[in-house]
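Below is one protein, fold included:
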Amino acid sequence: MTDETMDGQRLEELKGKIAALDKETVFQMLAAIRRERGYRHGWISVTFREIFGHWPEFKISTKKIEIVGPVEDFISLKLRRYHTQREDETSRYCAELRARARAEKAVSEPESNVIPFKR
């Protein structure tokens, strides 16, 4: 089983635990995480929808709220998956650029075993 498959299963497991919590409380926890980490406002709604399957209907509160384990674990795992995916994409892109550079170099340089014609 790959890490990505295990992470996907773990995300689903965490979603189940979070879904057992009060939706408004989860929404306020996501708002607190957004404030702490400087995410965009839309991040709250998108993450809420990913967990519960529908858009939130709550307003952001300014009062302090404690973030419980499953919510923090879910966000950390999502962030880790995102960074891993970005690293993979970057590696593929760099490999593609290197291959293009080699191909362009091979086309622009004459073969070394060919003797140039002299007059």
Q: What stands out?
A: The radius of gyration is 25 Å.
